[in-house]
């Protein structure tokens, strides 16, 4: 078992060696400036598209670097990992390529699609426990009992060095960067990128980003206690306790660690679809979320961030996109109190038509409301070309003597 407190962090030479080791087996993903996001934020914004890896996440870099350094005897024993997401698929995919038996322990609540994808890459999946911590404990138990080699998702020098190859590529493609903003879960990605970037460009600013609900690394670095836990769109960085080795590295190298709220993560995912036409999971959009949450901090700078993963459930993505339309004011749910008489619904529809608003769904609530028995609540879900059109239809409804309440997301 790895003992992080006694292990030395990887160096820039280790990262360069990792880059040579994985060359040709992992995509060198595009590093592109986004003109539109640059205009919105007021900075020169560069995006590293790691969501374009074969398994749609940067995790392949560290996993492959680790697997390639195993001895023939270790390869024959097989490897084990605990993961419900990107790490599982990375280890499974490259393990199969290299002929290494792979066992992945996942929590029992892991979505079926993630289980089947991991099995599709040739891994044996063991479902155990309600949470990741349970699965991790089971993986450690099997490591001891069966002699498997444990592949840690972040707290391992080989994993960190593999992730660090991203920092080298970013500065090769955009050498004028002033700042790099990196999502943090356990800290492996940020540790590797920070190690590479600080060695290649010592004056560069390095900012880590965590979901507001999971500030584990910020607590570790700052020495403060904060509540940790909850449902986040950025489940890929929803880590309660960061690594010991990664915490040591980031205490030394990170200039700051910021926390982003769920609203900004959702907004970032939606903007990347709308502007860049690219699908990014919540964790992968955390860097952009930080830029959107505090644009003044980055104004006038050359800023790079990593779209570190693109594995998001399609139904969840659809929900995020629709919620973003609602926040923009282009979609609304209107709760309209009306007399339950012929023509009331027609009047509502006419108001919508005159305002250029499209009705998506209509619901009647005659029983469960506090109105008189002759009245009803009509809920209308509608969409429009802009927020002004929604405001217009509300104004028309009120002038027609309807009482209107607008549902809010926040």
TrEMBL record:
A Pfam family annotated for this UniProt entry: ACT
Gene Ontology molecular function terms on file: threonine deaminase activity
The protein's Enzyme Commission number: 4.3.1.19
Cofactor: pyridoxal 5'-phosphate
Residue ranges constituting the ACT domain according to the UniProt record: 333-410
Catalysis performed (reactions): L-serine = pyruvate + NH4(+)
Keyword annotations from UniProtKB, A to Z: Lyase, Pyridoxal phosphate
Gene3D superfamilies assigned: 3.30.70.260, 3.40.50.1100
Keyword Lyase: yes
Top-rank EC class of the record's enzyme: lyase
PANTHER family for the chain: L-THREONINE DEHYDRATASE CATABOLIC TDCB, THREONINE DEHYDRATASE, MITOCHONDRIAL-RELATED
Family according to the record: Belongs to the serine/threonine dehydratase family.
Name of the protein in its database record: Threonine ammonia-lyase
Organism: Sphingomonas telluris
Phylogenetic classification of the source organism: Bacteria, Pseudomonadati, Pseudomonadota, Alphaproteobacteria, Sphingomonadales
